[in-house]
Amino acid sequence: xxxxxxxxxxxxxxxxxxxxxxxxxxxxxxxxxxxxxxxxxxxxxxxxxxxxxxxxxxxxxxxxxxxxxxxxxxxxxxxxxxxxxxxxxxxxxxxxxxxxxxxxxxxxxxxxxxxxxxxxxxxxxxxxxxxxxxxxxxxxxxxxxxxxxxxxxxxxxxxxxxxxxxxxxxxxxxxxxxxx
Length: 180
Hints:
Number of domains: 1
Strand content: under 5%
Number of strands: 0
Helix content: 55-70%
Distance between the termini: 22 Å
Structural class: mainly alpha
Order of helices and strands: HHHHHHHHHH
Largest sheet: none
């Protein structure tokens, strides 16, 4: 979800302000809002200049062979350092594009995040995964950077002592998947 949502934010400037408003409104309203708040905080940080390098027109758009390389890489098995923190992570896809509860567990493990970033950098094609034929606007950002920045943003937020979602009730809610 995150990589595609970022394109919406990038193409509609008012979305960034709306995103900030949602984050502000969900902070501090209880553990049930923790998942929503953290998700929007990750999205906002990943979209910020902290994890979003300047676009480069020298990054080519992925061709079919590179798309296949990416898909193949995402289906490879992650290392034990990641499967120990998230047992449902049976492929790199599960680590790099994890649902929020799993992303929180993975982000709390610096060795897993480091392994994921290294894996993406060495295994993903060096191209921009944009579908121009379907109206996509090329970002000029390599696919490895686009995908890993969400996990890095989650790690940054999860490890920040001032993050509102760091309360024990919120972290418990994040790990158990919600408020039901």
